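Sample 3 of the quickstart, ligand nicotinamide-adenine-dinucleotide:
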Amino acid sequence: MEHDIKHLYIGGEYVEPHSADRIDVVNPANGQRIGSIVDGDATDVARAAEAADRAFRTSGWAELTPKDRAGYIRRLADAYVERGAEMARLVSSENGMPISFSRLVHEERPARYYRYFAGVADTLELERTRPTSTGYAIVRKEPIGVAGLIIPWNGPQGLIAWKLGPALAAGCAVVIKPSPETTLDAFLLSEAIEQAGFPPGLINIVSGGPETGQAVVDHPLIAKIAFTGSSTTGKIIAARAGAQLKPVTLELGGKSAAILLDDADLDDFGARILEVCLPNTGQQCTACTRVLAPRDKYDQVVELATEVLARVPVGDPADPKSVFGPLVSARQRARVESYIAAGLQEGARLTTGGGRPAGLEGGCYVEPTVFRDVSNDMRIAREEIFGPVLSIIPYDGEEEAIAIANDSAYGLSGAVFSRDVDHATDVARRLQTGTVGVDQFSIALEAPFGGYKESGLGRELGPESVDSYLRIKTIYRAGSAPSA
Ligand code: NAD
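Result:
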């Protein structure tokens, strides 16, 4: 079925765009066009920003109690669930995510995120008083206004929910700019938004590419930007937003390390390699694509990883048996292949993969790939590849393992494997990274998620994430605070 989406979602209506430009949507599993979307321009973004600003100022949303807002967010979760199965299929056809994984990520989880943020809203405290040297102060948190949410293609609905949930809980209005690869699903979400009955204009969707995103960042009525995407784009956004002193939350790239300590249970690691090191065919920011192995166990670890990766079922994302699918686009495949060539040129050796899988020539597939003899100064160890490529690096002694893990421009995730979980936790404390797992890596929505260094600024998830959609006002009063 082709989805040609000719409209934008602005002011609670599906509206004709100002821009006449369109972008084709192509299924990366077979190269077939599955639809097209509007490439919105600055006029379209301005319309959406104005509608959001109007809703923020006049709809009464910002004045509702957070508990009342929670009711709407729960209705959004319910409306999402009705479309969950269709959402999982649609995203899988847009970005090549294997359907079994897409069901997990796009059918069930976003509704869970919305329910979680409704729960956070239920108990959100926005005003407190405290004594001061001159009397007392009312310290108040107010919604920041209109937030611009800029989304990547690799897990679109989850990453929208991470932003939309806390933005709504805080009392903000939003303009969502999805990635051009995954915009069809955003217009399925708009149906759920309609059904939930939000005030018109509170949530707007403007599709398009980088220039549309830039217009969102630049628009003066948009008071805050929440962005997930590459570090390169994140820096551009931070600079442009900085020119207006506009706050940003940036969830960016990674090149994380999984450290196998001397006493790690290698069988357990073998069972978790795909989930920790190469989730979503390696197209996930948290992928621990550097595996650090003690030198005396190096060959054993290489053999284990090679054996697991060589057996991964790669194929049509619509087939529930496929564990890896294609990369999102021919461009992304070319990028991954250029890294494989760079690894070979710098002296790393392939133990499996490196090419294109036989029989899947119509799609953007790359074989699951393992490199051995990798040193941490090679490009394949320093740069984010965003594909199914694992680099295994030997180390001598725990101090060196920690130094190698920390020797990265990034700091998003990480994992430490050891039979001694307290010791592994101590090692985790020394890693320069925003999140790290012991004997696993799995994001939990109740705790803050985000990066150090070039992996980002600010945090999403957890109750803390609501704060980035709020600003603080202090009201000074004389005398002593009335007792509650
Ligand atoms: P990208 O940076 O190219 O694009 C992300 C979004 O930004 C898209 O919607 C795009 O249209 C828009 N955009 C591009 N240029 C822009 C500009 N100058 N101004 C405003 N908007 C602009 O990233 P991508 O290729 O879509 O996604 C992959 C990247 O995202 C990877 O680097 C990955 O690590 C990162 N990522 C990070 C997280 C995280 O939470 N840290 C999660 C998923 C993906």
